[in-house]
Design a protein that fits this description.
heterodimer, A: about 50 residues, mainly alpha, 2 helices, B: about 700 residues, alpha+beta, Alpha-Beta Plaits, Calcium-transporting ATPase, cytoplasmic transduction domain A, seven-stranded mixed beta sheet, six-stranded antiparallel beta sheet, 26 strands, about 15% strand
Chain lengths: ~50, ~700
């Protein structure tokens, strides 16, 4: 039982952390431009551009 | 040294945000070019591209005007328009709240499941009770939060004495929660918290997908809009000019219409000589010459020099507004279309409810006691709850519309896909739909030197014909000749000098009308005529539609003499010289005779017909109002997406029917178990997720078919 008393709060806490992270990302507009995010990795940085 | 840099502080305060729509952005290269190009501009603080919405947000200093920024984006190589306030904000909000509810339901589902698995694998009495309490603690707030979209919709339906898919869902979820709470309080063996939360999760996934698809298509279409005369440059008494929005224009004002600009109000030409392109308004392909005293209508595009027009009718009084009203009325019939999911729910919901009631009554009669009878009735409700049904439609439609978007067709919503699958005839507009709707020059008679001179002259002008000529020649890989001293005289043309030789690109004298220009090099003049060619794959598309069982017809506002040759080439019947209301009544006649017409058109004159048709498609070059009226918009220069849309919509419906078929079979197998009282929370959970996975998997096949 002592194991459970530790593990269940940890499991719930991690889940809540993930949920909070999702809500934060949503509010900060991380999902506004999914197509753009997928394309941006192809853009070279200014320095090693030429 | 310690003095604060005052003027820099001031500059920071003066930063403004402007948003522009740039429909031409496609790839990473475009993002980089625009963001870097604008970033290097004096006075621009940051530029950020949103590729999904085809928008760029620029933070800049106030002294940089919006017109300057549009000009700057044009120099980088993209066409841009100032974006108006986001009309999609409302939809966006709805999608966001659905995704939040989905995330919360997902969190609840995983944690409740974690506890449930230990109960299923045989956790003992104290542990089980503790776990039930913990599950309740997680599930109750999660259901209260994530269930709201369903509860509010069900309440709305019940208030209007109707029933929809959300009613059995809400009843099932609420009863299961209530029963589980009772079980927990009395230390019972079975709690259905996991089932209730999982049900919400799968159903929310369906809803969220549906709304994400709608938003994506609308953002894409929104990016194409607003090419039309939204505002006009009005000359004041004192000679100064101001830009006034179309809805604030008043009769009596004098507006200045530049070449290439669309009229924002009806009026009479007061000064200047020009010709108007009425193709958006009437479908007529030949430009109409206009001089002092001639009438011009809102929506017409000025092809000639700058003119001054005295407004006679503005805002809601224009011919354009009249057509918009006609369109609104025509669109009414479509809102009564019942989507397939709702049609299924109409049969499904009463069936499920009576079955559950029957189970309860049956077990009561058999002497099982009210508690056990209720448990069984609820088990019936949970296991038949339309988990797979909730996903059956949106999953298939999202996959299909994603595949269509890749081939250049944006479908506005799921209802549009369902209606596209049912059409049995196709009505095409001519100008701008079967044809490209933009003048393409015939340069056969030009020598390479002459073409180079023509390009050098044409690329300096904003006149529609010059722009068409320059675009065409540049695409041919011709380099402009070194022409110097180029000057433009409104209404006459361009002139310059190549070495000692005077060159000019002018309005031709003679019978050519406005769709021609003449190139003069020294003493020699060559007339370049323009034509509006058919899209390259028209015949192929019509053949493909025929193979799908769709007869094609041309319904055009243009003169019979221009329509007949096109109809002959394509081998279709045609109607010509139709007014907008005639197109509409023609369409209604077809509908009254039991046909389901698909309308494909681009002009303002097509919009009432587009709104009234069973389904409709418009090209991206169409007028704003037509794009709003149409169910789908295609972006390519080819017509093929139209045929593709019909094929894909039909395949989607086939997959949806398979999904429904599967859900029904699954229920037929599961219901006897539930009625017999054999369904435990474990069986309910397994059955639910399995059926949902099968439905999603079946829908994903659509992406493969499209390839």
């Amino acid at each position: 039982m002592t194991g459970l008393a530790l593990l269940i709060p940890v499991a719930l806490g991690l889940g809540l952390l993930g949920l909070a992270a999702f809500f934060w990302a949503m509010r900060k507009g991380q999902f506004e431009d999914l197509d753009g995010a997928a394309q941006r990795i192809f853009i070279n940085d200014e320095e090693d551009d030429k | 040294m310690n003095a604060p840099p005052r003027h820099e502080d001031l500059l920071v305060q003066q930063l403004a945000d402007s948003r522009f729509t740039v429909p031409g952005m496609r790839c990473a290269g475009c993002i980089a070019k625009i963001e870097r190009g604008l970033g290097e501009l004096e006075g621009v603080e940051t530029a950020r591209v949103n590729l999904s919405a085809k928008k760029v947000t620029i933070r800049h200093q106030h002294n940089l005007s919006e017109a300057d920024l549009v000009e700057a984006i044009a120099r980088i190589g993209f066409e841009a328009q100032l974006a108006s306030d986001n009309p999609l904000a409302q939809d966006d909000l709805e999608a966001k709240s659905l995704f939040r509810a989905l995330a919360v339901a997902g969190f609840g589902m995983m944690n409740v499941m974690l506890l449930s698995v230990s109960i299923w694998s045989g956790a003992g009495s104290v542990t089980r009770e503790l776990f039930h309490w913990l599950s309740a603690l997680i599930a109750l707030p999660v259901i209260a939060y994530s269930g709201r979209p369903f509860f509010s919709s069900a309440a709305m339906a019940l208030k209007n004495a109707r029933t929809n898919m959300d009613v059995p869902i809400s009843i099932g979820v609420l009863l299961a929660t209530g029963l589980s709470l009772y079980e927990t309080l009395t230390g019972g063996a079975h709690a259905y918290f996991d089932g209730a939360v999982m049900l919400l999760f799968f159903l929310l996934a369906g809803r969220a997908l549906d709304s994400a698809m709608r938003n994506k298509a609308r953002a894409g279409i929104g990016a194409l809009l607003s090419k039309m005369g939204r505002s006009a440059t009005v000359l004041q008494e004192n000679g100064s000019s101001t830009s006034i929005a179309a809805e604030n224009l008043e009769p009596g004002m004098l507006m200045l219409v530049a070449p290439g600009e669309a009229l924002a109000a009806d009026g009479v030409v007061e000064k200047g000589l020009t010709s108007f392109d009425n193709s958006m308004l009437t479908g007529e392909s030949q430009p109409v010459p206009a001089g002092v005293g001639d009438l011009a209508h809102a929506g017409a595009i000025n092809l000639g020099g700058a003119v001054r027009i005295r407004i006679t009718a503005a805002a809601s009084q224009t011919v354009l507004a009249e057509i918009a009203r006609l369109m609104d009325e025509a669109g009414q019939s479509r809102s009564s279309y019942v989507r397939i999911a709702d049609r299924a729910a109409r049969i499904y919901a009463p069936a499920v409810h009576s079955l559950a009631l029957l189970a309860f009554a049956g077990w009561m009669v058999a002497g099982a006691g009210w508690y056990q009878s209720l448990v069984i009735a609820i088990a019936v409700l949970i296991i038949t709850c339309p988990c797979a049904m909730g996903l059956a439609v949106p999953a298939a439609q999202v996959v299909a519309s994603g595949a269509l978007a890749k081939s250049g067709l944006l479908v506005k919503d799921g209802s549009a896909l369902e209606r596209l699958a049912e059409v049995d005839m196709a009505l095409f507009d001519k100008t701008g739909t079967l044809t490209l709707g933009e003048p393409v020059p015939r340069i056969g008679e030009l020598s390479p030197e002459e073409a180079a001179i023509a390009l050098a002259l044409a690329q300096t002008s904003r006149h529609p014909l010059s722009k068409g000529l320059a675009r065409f020649l540049a695409a041919k890989g011709i380099a402009p000749a070194p022409v110097a001293d180029i000057s433009e005289r409104g209404g006459i043309g361009l002139s310059g000098r190549l070495g000692p030789v005077p060159v000019a690109l002018e309005r031709p004298s003679g019978e050519y009308g406005a769709l021609a220009t003449s190139l003069r090099v020294g003493e020699k003049t060559t007339v370049i005529t323009f034509a509006d060619p058919l899209r390259s794959d028209c015949a192929e598309v019509i053949a493909r539609l025929k193979a799908e069982g769709l007869d094609s017809r041309i319904v055009s506002g243009d003169r019979a003499a221009s329509v007949a040759p096109v109809a002959r080439i394509l081998g279709t019947d045609f109607e010509a010289a139709l007014l907008p209301e005639e197109k509409l009544s023609l369409l209604n006649r077809w509908k009254a005779s039991g046909r389901r017409p698909l309308m494909i058109g681009d002009g303002i004159n097509d919009s009432p017909a587009l709104a009234a048709a069973h389904a409709s498609i418009a090209p991206a070059s169409a007028s704003d109002i037509s794009q709003q009226a149409a169910d789908a918009v295609f972006l390519s220069n080819e017509l093929m997406p139209v045929a593709l849309a019909v094929t894909m919509a039909r395949r989607t419906m086939r997959v949806i029917r398979q999904n429904f078929g599967f859900a029904v079979v699954y229920n037929i197998l599961a219901i006897p178990l539930a009625l017999a009282g054999l369904v435990t929370p474990l069986i309910a959970a397994v059955a639910m997720s399995l059926s949902s996975l099968v439905v999603v998997g079946n829908s994903l096949r659509l992406a493969r078919i499209a390839r």
